[in-house]
Design brief:
Elements: E1 4-11, H1 17-30, E2 36-44, E3 47-52, E4 55-60, E5 65-68, E6 71-74, E7 77-80, H2 91-99, H3 108-115, H4 117-126, E8 131-132, E9 135-139, H5 146-152, E10 157-161, E11 171-173, H6 179-189, E12 192-197, E13 202-211, E14 214-217, E15 221-225, H7 232-236, E16 241-244, H8 251-267, E17 272-281, E18 286-293, H9 303-310, H10 315-334
Parallel strand pairs: 1-2, 1-7, 8-18
Antiparallel strand pairs: 2-3, 3-4, 4-5, 5-6, 9-12, 10-11, 10-12, 13-14, 13-15, 13-17, 15-16, 17-18
Helix pairs in contact: 2-3
Length: 335
Amino acid sequence: MRKKKIAVIAGGDSGEFGISMNSGRMVASILDNNLYDVYLIKIKGKEWNYEKENQTFAIDKNDFSLLINENRIHFDCVFCAIHGSPGENGKMPAYFEMLNIPYTSSNSLTSAITFNKHICNTIVSSLNIVNVAKSLHFFDYEKIDTDAILNYLDLPLFVKPNSGGSSVGISKVKQPDSLLTAIKMAFIEDSEILVEEFVEGRELTCGVMETTGKLYVFPVCEVKSKNEYFDFESKYDPLLADEIIPAPISESLDVNIKKISAYLYKKLNCAGVVRFDYIYSSKRRKLFFLEVNTVPGMTGESIVPKMAMEMGIELPNLYKMMIEDALERKSQLEK
């Protein structure tokens, strides 16, 4: 049987470049080389390259092919490991859709919607299945009245880029005179920002994956950051956060989080492996939706691989299931 040629795309144009490269290297190193010929493609701006033995081979963007020693390589599937732009925001999925190349993440529309926190929050709120924190949305060309913000939202509060992940550009604001600085910092990362109420509670997350028609809902994980919140540093330094799987929560809360995550996966039309993040406020006895990650981390320190292993799915099999699902989705579309 011919081995399938798999392109693992990693890197991207956001502050998550390094994390994405780590995810890509992990996937490329673990995929079964008895089944796949794997090519790690580093994407940075206009540079889309495959590197091997101190040589660099450029991707032909006309058809996403690779020419190595007069041998033209066309890929059977793309494993998307780009966190942030252009992988998680819908740009790369749209490109692969035009070329009719299967890929492991959600489609371009779902990716664009879920990457935009304001739009995603609006849709999730309209479903009336989970609470969404109060927030204000701003573009960088707007005049922002910090007094009006503080009249609407109590301190502390969060300021975050409207798009992006891994807590890049996020600030927790405790004092009024810190708000403008936090807003400026968020605008460095994005042209849109959210100013959001602080919900005190337990950070919980749940992964969902559909493959060949079967929906897998992973064990819920509780994240206990040793920093003030689960920021960029604590997300990728195992010494700064405890990730407890399964989460030590009540059975009813566990069932509810899994039910909501499965429902959102379907209603948002997600595909591949997706992670939903929540805050549970014990004081208010309410669960709050935070965000959805359509290209979650795939490094050894990432949450989703740990969830899968807790469920009995080893990493080579997880990645294989994701590729098989992408190929199956393409097959179904062609029927």
